[in-house]
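Example S7 (structure tokens).
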């Protein structure tokens, strides 16, 4: 991964993170929360989301709510990604016999759009429920235990494009519950440790396809109200 490219991605994420400090929003609500869920991968070993590969994951986040329809979410997640050819009955898996397990951490900055004018009000009126969509940028770090001990890759500061959606529900002016599903497109084909190298005859891979990973979970958050003096 080109270092200059990673630095550019990092600068973009930092710029997005500080956008809200330049906005004159008289009723901004600051929201902090945490969630638990599961994460999975797709790539060379399995090209689709296999529910049996989901492993524990969690998330901490901050959300700046600008209006009933828009907000900015900054989150960091920690989880496990894993897969093994031994689970899949096909000729390539039988020949390759690859496996991996990865502990990953990411930082994402995402814009969220609420479809039903999700009402953040100091009174418990307005819409209590809304589906939403989200998209943004992220940075991925991971540490793999793979079947090929000679494999060495750059696993730090890999750029990602996260996008997804979910549902929000608030019980009162402060307490919110959330379900989310996020897809993370990466720009590396190395999460699973299967690579294109002329020195390894078993490196059966499609170098034109990058690996993906996914996070789904539930979260609870608390809204703090800013008090503005006239």
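Recovered sequence:
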């Amino acid at each position: 991964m080109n270092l200059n490219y990673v630095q550019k991605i990092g600068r973009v994420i930092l710029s997005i993170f500080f956008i809200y400090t330049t906005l004159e929003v008289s009723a901004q609500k600051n929201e902090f929360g945490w969630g638990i869920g599961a994460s999975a991968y797709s790539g060379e070993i399995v090209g689709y989301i296999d529910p049996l590969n989901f492993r524990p994951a969690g998330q901490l986040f901050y959300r700046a709510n600008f209006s009933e329809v828009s907000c900015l979410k900054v989150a960091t997640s920690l989880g496990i990604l894993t897969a093994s050819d031994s689970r899949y009955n096909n000729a390539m898996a039988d020949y390759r016999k690859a496996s991996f397990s990865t502990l990953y951490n990411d930082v994402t900055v995402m814009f969220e759009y609420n479809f039903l004018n999700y009402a953040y009000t100091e009174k418990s009126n307005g819409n209590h429920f809304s589906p939403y969509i989200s998209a943004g940028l992220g940075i991925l770090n991971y540490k793999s235990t793979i079947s090929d001990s000679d494999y060495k890759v750059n696993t730090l500061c890999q750029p990602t494009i996260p996008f997804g959606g979910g549902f929000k529900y608030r019980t009162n002016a402060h307490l919110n519950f959330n379900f989310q599903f996020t897809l993370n497109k990466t720009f590396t084909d190395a999460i699973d440790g299967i690579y294109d190298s002329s020195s390894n005859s078993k490196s059966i891979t499609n170098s034109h396809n990058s690996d993906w990973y996914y996070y789904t979970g539930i979260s609870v958050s608390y809204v703090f109200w800013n008090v503005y003096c006239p």
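Notes on this example. Confidence is low (pLDDT under 50) at residues 20-27.
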